[in-house]
Amino acid sequence: MNVRQLEAFQATMETGSVSRAAERLGVSQPAVSKLLRAFSDSCGFGLFVRSGGRLVPTQEARALATEVERMFSGTERVARLARALRNREWGEVSVAAPPALATRYLAHALAPLLSARPDLLFTLQSRNSPRIAELVAAQQIDIGLSVLPSDHPHVDAEIIMRFDMICILPAGHPMAERNAIALDDLRNEPFISLARDDCSLMTIDRAFQVRGVQKRTAIEVPLSETICGFVANGVGVSVVPPFVGLDYSPTQLVRRKLVPATPMDVWMLTPNTRPPSLAAQRLAELIRLAVAPFNTTRVEA
After folding, report:
1. What pLDDT, on a 0 to 100 scale, did the predictor assign at position 89?
2. What is the pTM (predicted TM-score) of this model?
3. What domains are there in the chain, each with its CATH number?
4. Which one of 15, 115, 121, 129 is least enclosed by Cβ atoms within 10 Å?
């Protein structure tokens, strides 16, 4: 027996007629009859009998029909899976990003993709940049976003965004009317800071040191989004990436350009020891689109 015989048998069982089975399969009626005879011979028993001008399946044929239907259902499942893989709608993709991106912004940017692909399992981890590079090198995640490049031989690194840090102030702050805030203006302001080992803080501190400005840290917190909460409540000022604190209205928190510019890069890290899945490729494309509004310089890959 072969698949064509099984198709002819299933179509005849479902339509109750050789002629209608032929129409469904797009072949001639004699071709279906020939397939049914060959299938019957393979089985060693009759499949149909004529009764009152109707084609009636035998008990043995009914028993076979159940298994044949299961087989074709499994085939259809394989076909659906193949379509989902081709359309990047199925699979598992794991991403690790610094807290400034992972806490809020990536959820906002990637939600439309994920809601349209319920069979795509997406895992997001919040890690510091050195740990992200380690996870990518060990092939424990598919995509890493890092503010540090990686020179590991098993990791490909691509700059996907270069952004300028911004200054955030309480809405009622005296400097809130300005279009830009100079680092020198923050000399005596209570500063809401990230933890001392945070890579972003290292960049901020270096900018203050270059200008010879002593930063007066009043509060130290683990997350940039937490900084925004303190600033919105009038506790102090800070310097953060432009993609944090987007949920706060201008009546709570004011976002201003920081001068001189204090740039940072975001790198996309991927393992190079195995090809990425189609789903991972699609997610990488969407991450590039998600960060594009904050990219101050077009960086060639």
Report:
1. 46
2. 0.68
3. 3-86 (1.10.10.10), 91-162+264-294 (3.40.190.10), 166-261 (3.40.190.10)
4. 115
